Structure formats: C-alpha cells, structure tokens
Fold these 3 entries.
Entry 1:
Amino acid sequence: MNNNKIIAIVASLALLMAATRFNHFGSAISLPDASLAVFFLCGLYLARFTRASIAAFITLILEAGIVDYYAISIQGVSDWCMTPAYWFLIPTYGSLWLIGRWFALRHSMEGRRGLAGLALAAWVASSFAFLFSNATFYIFSEYFDSMSVVEYLSRIAQYYGSYISVAMLYIACAVGIQMI
C-alpha cells in the first residue's frame, strides 16, 4: 500500500467521524455516530503500517476531541458527558483500534470464515468499548452516586443493541466497499 492509499484511508475515516460524531443515534438529518467503527477500521486497514496506524489513531483521537469541543462550544450541544470519565474514551477507542489491528495481523477477510471472524472481532471490540466507556462513566462522572450498579446497567442495556448494530453496519459497509 502506498502513501496515497494510507492518506485516503485516514482522510475517509476522519471525514466519516466528522460527519457523524454530533449525534449518537442519528436523526432525520444526520447519521448515527461512527466513532466505534472508525477506530476499529483504522486498526484493521492500517495494521501493517505501524507508524501510519499510530499516527492515524492519534489524529483521530485529536479530531474526536476537537469535534466535541466544537459541538459544545459553538453548536450548543450539552456538555453533560464532559466529566473526568471523558478521558477514558482514549483507552475505549484504543481497544477498538487494537482489536482491529490484531485481527488484520493474524487473520484474513477472505471467504465466509474470514468474514465471520471479522464480524466476531468487530462485535467483541464494539461490545467491550460500549461496556468499558459506560462503566467508566458510571464510576468517574459523579452523576450516579445514589444509583446502584444494577440499576445503571438496566438503564444502559437499552442502548447496547443500537450502539453495536450501528458500529457493525459501518464496518460491514467499509468491508463491502473494499471487496467491490
């Protein structure tokens, strides 16, 4: 893969995140947030280019922060998520990147078996990211001092399916485009 392809991959991922990060669930005028998929795909597609992959990961982390800052400061989006827990998005996104990278370095996307393995890796990565980010938000946001862990889990459980299915759909679309 040459530098132009690497730049095109990073630019595509950055554009996808910039276009979708404003709304977790999407709306009539916006797509749902693709951040989980973006970091997984960054690891997946740039795994063999360690320096480029690390630079892309850092760039995407910085972009996420800038988009969030813009959304809160300029667009008037609520800053409710801006707590000490926000910093835990770095290891959350890092886990997605690492699992994508791990899969690409050890497995192939060839055939049904390869695609099934990719789907499993994407599901595990997205599930872990969802659970880790929610656990750290529960622990460090200071919003839930009077709420039990069980009650918190029951409240976030309703969002699990939509978060994971959106990430899986974006990943499937990217892999489908690559295969074409």
Entry 2:
Amino acid sequence: MIMTIAAALTAYGAYAQNDSDMNGKKTLVAYFSATGTTEKVAGMIAEISGGYLYEITPVEPYTAADLDWHDSNSRSSVEMKDDRSRPAIENDLKDAESYDVIYLGYPVWWGLAPRAVNTFLDTYGFAGKTVIPFATSGGSGISNSEAKLREQYPDIRWKSGRLLNNPSKSAIKEWLE
C-alpha cells in the first residue's frame, strides 16, 4: 500500500513538473504605443496570458507634431527614413533574460515597427527567445514589419504575428490559444 502511494505521488510529481514546463513559461508583453491604441491591446494580451506588461517608453515622449506623418520633417518621419535611427528608451526592464516568450506590440509606421522597437530589441537582445509580434495600424498590415524584424534580428525565434485592430478579448484569447 505504501509503495502504491509512493509510486502514485512520484508519477503525479513527474506529471506536474512536465505540465509546469509546458505551460509555466515566463511571459513578457512588451509594447510601444504613441497614442494608446497598442497599449489597450497589450493590456488585454497581458490580462489573458498572465504575462508581465511592460511599456517601451521613449526618453523623449512623442508629441502630436512628432507623429505627423504628413510632415517629412517630423520626428517620426525622420526616424523612419533612417534604418540606423535608435531613439533612446528607458532602460528599466528587470530580468529581461528570464522571459521565455515575449509578445512584442507596436503601431505600424511606414510599413515597419517604430525605431523605438529596434532600440528595445538592441538593448535586451532576446537571442534564442520566442518573440511573437502584434501590431495595430490605420492602414498597413503586419507582414512587412514582421519580415524586417526577422531580417534584422535573426537570432530570435520569431513566431507569426497578428494585426490586432480593435480586437475583442475573445478574439485575443483565441489567438493566444
């Protein structure tokens, strides 16, 4: 009887350990949002996934004038014309290396991720980590930005991303599953 109980507990412990390995991945939901649209989606992803919500915060916040894509001299226009542009961000993410899965959110600017996202990836690396992009956009898809990120950061294990414009919680839950 004691041997049976011991065997059952050992089997349960092995199952619980395997379950933890499969479902217990440490998740980060990192996002850049200049107007709040991507922030709202990121918040829903963090709530549903149980991930840690982290805002990629530029040292110098973007103003409405900075975001005027009609003005070729606006800050965002100038940054997006230069592949090497890396606007400074707050460097305050603790234990970045401890995350297994990173959901990376951003608005699509000029068909790409904003340069602040590049600064974030350059700062924290995430080589060998699973990164799943998600984006919001007023008119562009995610595919071009996703392809460029894969090209720029080949050491990351990229998973297919999703454009999430005004999603419901049930749509996000379905995508996460």
Entry 3:
Amino acid sequence: MHTGDVFSCQIGSPGGFVDFTTIGDAVNTASRVQGLCKYYGVQALITGKTFNFAGKPEGYKRLDVIAVKGKEQPLEIYSKEPYAQKWLEFEAARKLYADGEFIKAKQEFERLGSGLKMWAWRCEQLEKNPPAKGEWKGVWK
C-alpha cells in the first residue's frame, strides 16, 4: 500500500468499451511495492508514507529502505511483524547490511534461515560488486 494522489475515471467511448481505472504516481508506486511481497516473504507491505499517515500502527516494523524502479527517492517499507520470532536478530543483520558489512551480514542472514535468502543474495552481490567508497547509503535499487 502507498498513499498519494490518484486520478480515477472511466475511459472509453460512448457506445463502446468503457472501463473504470485509477492512474497516477501513487498507483504505480503501490504496484511496485506490492510486487516485492514475494521477495520478502510477507503478505503485505506498506510504505513509510502510509505508515505515518495511518498513525504508525502498532505491530508494523520497518523492513527495508528501497528505491523502486523509476524512482530515485528511497522508500521505507513496513510489514506487520515480519520474521516475528527472529526480529531482533534480523534487525542486527540488517544493520550490518546497512553499514556495508556485507560478508558478516550475509552470514547472519544465512544463519537466520530460509525466509532471508534474498538478503543473503543481496549481500553476495554487493560483496562481488561493492559500491564506491561513500556511495552506499543502505538503499537497494
């Protein structure tokens, strides 16, 4: 889910095919974020904008900071109790990742188990092709 302005309308011609649609930057962002659920192993994700707009709902945790396709501005994404049993350990591994300690982070993500394979893969990619010194901001694009 993402929060923002949208344009909702019917499109088509009189007597022809008419369809109801919603368009706009917020719709595109929501679609891109929704497509990430399978990678994080969660049923739903909300952006930081929605999280804040909803009054920072209890039980949601910041999962990542990403830049979706077509966007330069990073987005925080939240999920309801992701990796609930291992949350503190996940947070420690994610901090290693954000700090650019990719080898240590990869080891921790692998130790934590199957739901975190994507994180270990990212660390491997970043270790193989490290960002230039001072370039890494902890944002996956």
